[in-house]
Protein 1
Amino acid sequence: MASLTIRKLDDAVKTYLRLRSAKNRRSVEEEVRVILRELIEGREEPLTPFAVPPAASSSAPTQQRTSAVPEASVTLIIGGGIAAYKSLDLIRRLKERRVEVRCVLTKAAQQFVTPLAVSALSHERVYTDLFDPQSEFDAGHIRLARDCDLIVVAPATADLLAKLANGHADDLASAILLATNRKVLLAPAMNPLMWNNAATRRNVAQLQRDGAVLIGPNSGEMAEAGEAGIGRMSEAIEIANAAERLLRPPVPRPLAGKRVLITAGPTHEPIDPVRYIANRSSGKQGFAIAAAAQAAGAEVILVSGPVDLDDPQGVTVKHVESARQMLEQVQAALPVDVAIFAAAVADWRVANEGEQKLKKTSAGMPPLQLVENPDILATIAKLADKRPPLVIGFAAETEHLIDNAKSKLARKGCDWIVANDVSPATGVMGGDRNTVHLISRKNGAKDGEFAVDSWPVMTKEQVAIELVAHVARTVTDKSREPAS
Ligand code: C5P
């Protein structure tokens, strides 16, 4: 069979292969194999590397062998120690967690496990040589160092730790470790005397200062007969769990266990069965707050007037039309820990709502009598028993923003007011950005003393995240002034 030397191909072909393989996170050699396989199967990809589907969906051979599409990738450096046999199990454990694993074996590691075994388990080619012409023509060690989410060294021998601590790069493993900008997880394995040696102690301390994360070593029996102590490599499952914690750190959920009620959108106040009074509120800000509170772990009830938005995931949404229906749903949602009233509730409704469509008559316009709607915010803020510990209102103003917002806060009895200028020139109504001021009563201050925190212009999502962060800190502090 003829062999193909990639180095000798035309420059244009080499460039194409380099771009395409980098995009698909394969070695150039593997990419050529994929292209040939696709040609034979009659489903070749388009000739521009930028039109190639992402690796996860285009990597047919990998997909056939793993049950799920990989979500993260690890470069696993296997050092030369007897614990290297556990790294074979580690490959499996990582792949079970939907992690793609590309392995590098040091020269010494090959005394303990073979590239063939590692390749069979990882379903990828194995890298062993810094000066491998096939992978190095496109700086393979740099790709191995950076085209991954995490580097795991297992076993991390005393020698590898020393090289890494001192910045050596005389083989593929140490060159990758020096060239990476990814987090490095080290699973040391060595004889207890080596682990306790002053040089290793210094190296470990240096590596920790440099930001490397260590798992183990555990204490127990050594491979050497009759020796025991600290130095056994952690079990594969422990290393895989540590890798998973670094790859998918737990999301902070500061509002876990809290119930948050939010109103959003306009209300529609019927004139007759086909007409209504409304306003220009889009509901975007309230919906963004609901999504941010849900992401922060809260149980969220969103009472929304008519809007053209999808319900945020994981949020209980009550759809209403009028102010009175909104009040009903808000009352039904109590008790809650936090209530945020972002809805643009119509101040008035038609007292004499027509049962049938109002007709034009020669007598002129039908007389529409308006009556005031219930003020939902004020009603809830002034409750004697079920008042939520933190009640937040919004003030959409077109003039005297801060002064109007302060008097609104006092009049309605809420704890904070989020004030925003909605004059047409700002584009806030229906737009995606908002400039807000958070106004609160100062802790322990006399009536009429307020704290004003002005935020820069932000997207409505950013305003929501910022507001929820203030809420989370304040709810935990049990203070009513926004904790900064
Ligand atoms: O009085 P104004 O409409 O400016 O007050 C704005 C604040 O009061 C907002 O938080 C809004 O949701 C709330 N509000 C209410 N019920 C009303 C009117 C306003 O909850 N009827």
Protein 2
Amino acid sequence: GNRGAAEREQKLSLLKMKVGDLHSVPIIIRETTTIQEAVVSLFLENVGNLIVTDAEGHLAGIVSRKDLLKVTLGNPSASSMPVSLIMTRRANVTTVEPEDTVLDAARKIIAQQIDSLPVVVKSESDNPDAWKVVGRITKTNIIKMLLDMVSEE
Ligand code: ADP
């Protein structure tokens, strides 16, 4: 009946929703940022992790609260070191592109047991040195989208 059709349509819109429609503004720091400054940014921006880029905004890595805790707990003098020494490097960073579906992003987040993914635009060359960071998509973004869809019923 009607209800079945509405449910099917809703499911379809969830499957079709694109990362580009949902992602938020990325919180970015430079590779040269110190660990101390990164901790301050984490608190000021109220996020769980920070995306690290080069001067042109190309993805270099990601640093999370646990990465920062781990290094500073063992060694207080580490706070003046650059985050590039402790970040998860680009080769190991899971990313999505704006054209990917939100469902793809959710699967990657669960599979990797992480909180968020950088959203990158890979230029024509596909050269990873030139992946431009345009956003971040988080568990919270995705749950909010689900709640919006339920309340639209
Ligand atoms: P927390 O530090 O609070 O556990 P995360 O779950 O975001 O926060 O990070 C867990 C680990 O995974 C950290 O070492 C972090 O550097 C790494 N990490 C975070 N996001 C990603 C990602 N998109 N791809 C790969 N590794 C990531």
Protein 3
Amino acid sequence: MLSLVLYIDMDYFFAACEELKNPSIKDKPNAVSNYDKEDRRGVILTANYIARRYGVKSGISVSKALELCKDLIVVKADYDLYGSISSKIFDIIRSYGYTTEILSIDEAALNINVNSYEDAYSIAKDIKDRIFNETGLTASVGIAIGKIIAKIACDEAKPNGILIVKQEDSYSFIKDKSIEKIPGVGRRSLEELRKLGVERLSEINKIGYIKLKSILGSYADTLIALSKGIDYSKAEPSSEARSISREKVIEPTDRDEALEKVAEELIDELYDYISKSSIAYAGVGVKAVYQDFSQSVKSSKLNGLHEDKETIVETSKRLIRQLPKDKPIRKFGVRVYDIRSMKGQRKLF
Ligand code: TTP
Ligand code: MG
Ligand code: MG
């Protein structure tokens, strides 16, 4: 039995959705921006593969993109459309019944147990075909022993491909990868590693452990293992445990203080509700959604049940500091979990 991770990511997702809406742009270079084409604040969110040949890609300004490709069609983002197509895709993916982790608006990881790599391939092909038949969109799939290698394989399979990295090939596949290609290494860590002469994954072993830890935090251990071809990461479904949360879309920021202010606002609302409903909690969590729709969640299991507001405030402040902030956060949330109704219970204090 092989325990593998199947990683699936849609091809040029926003732009592909726009091509469904307006097929006449399909054979032309096109891109999606957060603002209208004429708006100077516009940034390219993604581009179809024809536009990518000109160098048009996520993150560059619309004016730069038009310099690279003067016939570029720029469409303003239609998030409702992407959200509804994304839900349809995740429904298809979940219908297979594997443990599934949704990682962003267009990607998911599945833990699959199979007898052979041929079987893994068949599952990937089947999911891809169903998504295509039901939405008209193509996806790429990577399959490997762990989530990180599977994601990299998925990137390399693009567009519309399937790449399987067998267990015995994990090391040779991963060791010379540019650190830029490793998911989870933020912009700042990347810069620091480069300054120390690290370009490829296996080169991180040149740096002392303490130094590496100071740059990457707990991710250092994961990367050291990865550089040896070991990847234990699996799909982790978001816990179904009972919780109450409040979240809101914010002015994009990477500053702790700004997030703390938002947290206080959300906690006011949240606490108002739980105190009125006599709810106690045993855990506090925060969630950040970044501009590329990827998410990061930090949570802290408390010592026993709590009913006060201060614990939520203090714990979320601590968790905010732990959130990766290598890209701006556009949505922020606070939750309490492992909750219990205290209604009808004798108050001890
Ligand atoms: P990605 O999966 O990173 O990119 P993609 O689907 O456009 O292209 P690829 O074929 O290489 O997977 O991101 C999914 C969507 O998220 C993308 O279509 C647009 C959006 N996005 C942003 O809004 N900002 C960003 O910086 C990035 C990278 C993506
Ligand atoms: Mg994608
Ligand atoms: Mg993606």
Protein 4
Amino acid sequence: MTEQNLSFIDEVRRRRTFAIISHPDAGKTTLTEKFLLYGGAIRSAGSVKSRRSQKHAVSDWMEIEKQRGISVTSSVLQFEYNNFCINILDTPGHQDFSEDTYRTLMAADSAVMVIDCSKGVEEQTKKLFQVCKMRGIPIFTFINKMDREGKDPFDLLEDIENVLGIRSCPVNWPIGSGKDFKGVFNRHKNQIELFNDGNHGQSIAKSITGNISDEKFNTLLGDVLHKQLQNDIELLDVAGDSFDLNQILNGELTPVFFGSALTNFGVEPFLKSFLDITTPPKPRSSNLGDIDPESTNFSGFIFKIQANMNKSHRDRIAFLRICSGKFEKGMTVNHVQRNKKIKLAQPQQFIAQDRVIVDSAYPGDIIGIHDPGIFNIGDTLSQNQSKLQYSGIPQFAPEHFARISTTNSLKRKQFLKGITQLAEEGAIQVYKRPNIGMEELIIGVVGVLQFEVLEYRLKQEYGVYITMNRLPYRYIRWIEETTFNRDNFSITMDTILVEDKDKNPVLLFQNEWSVRQIIERNEGLILRETSI
Ligand code: GDP
């Protein structure tokens, strides 16, 4: 990284932190790699994938990702481009892991949604988009694979608007498609940018830019493409939504870009516009009001915990999003939820593809802190304000449940340790029947694939084999303690009463009819859909 003598404020203002979401295979990894290529963080494309497979070799619980071709957890990368310092948060594409995506989005200031131009909006895009929408952050759309024959660009815009329910506004418009994909037209600058081969995407694509009316483009594009572009632009100007920065920043309008991550065409124009439009970290809400990122008091929150990223180290990392102030290695901070002071000794950052020890970091950055088992998702760390708490990270209500126990009673200790750690990571939610010990646990997950990951990780990381019986419950409700009459509680046959990790009473139902029945039978009973 380049050493610059920038002030704290300059450092904050050059930060951009975004999450990247897509249906599997739309090209998220390829696009991320090309960002790194343009940022100079890697010298030639192709290295991310091979690094990824190397990582699989050491971090073998990720084997499951490889086997199924899906990304189970999200990771973080930092790189520099044009004096911006950019943090990318990768998210799992599969909907069964949308809980992880949600937590990751809590740490992002905007999102980039990658769509395959031949497929349009796909199933997982929808779900992930909804999660972004809940956060109200700006959502940028990158329509990828324009080097392949795909849907008509106008149809793709309609698809986004109809399926996702968000208005769209193209910033870059494609010139040709498939083999004839030549470049993009920037509607803001009224400028054409045509690309040259770029060594099949291995290196930065060279380009020719100029005004749309410039004669040379008639020759370069040919009469047909040039005319078609002019017609498209006229149509967009008349029929499309106009660019409205406020609406974009509020997540009500998505700016759309076209390109090909594979050939690099359109990648850099996207990156440049993205950096122009997005803002540095904004104030975050907390129990003490909005916290200004430019305030010099260091603060941040834990949004993700991941154990055993590297099996040989058996480490557990808590991911901290910095919200204000400068972070310095070795600093002592308040761990608000535990009411304790802790020293942040070996903080790590994820620069391009590597983990490095970090000396300093700024609002917008994500650092990994070694976690000896003291952190929970949502915890706040703060240098001076021991009472500061960032708004909590809500849990998704689980929709699938299973009863699990270990097949080997000698391994009970390991079993409970594994379950506890995975629950702390937020990978599963644990419930138990009141008055029954920890012999039998009920696990709740949002997506069924999480069960597979649970079984796999318990085996690989803790040497524990489990038996798992799926349960028919589909709905969960937390009982408002003050309305709960334990001695005179009427329950239906197909419903069970359990406790969550904090011993709160919780009901598991098979259908919505039973939910209504319980409310009718128990006067005054209040049920909540979330734990907080
Ligand atoms: P992810 O699952 O969203 O991370 O998708 P990947 O980046 O792994 O890409 C999935 C497949 O699509 C890979 O075979 C890529 O080489 C291919 N791909 C990605 N971007 C493009 C593109 O712009 N054009 C074409 N033709 N293929 C692409």
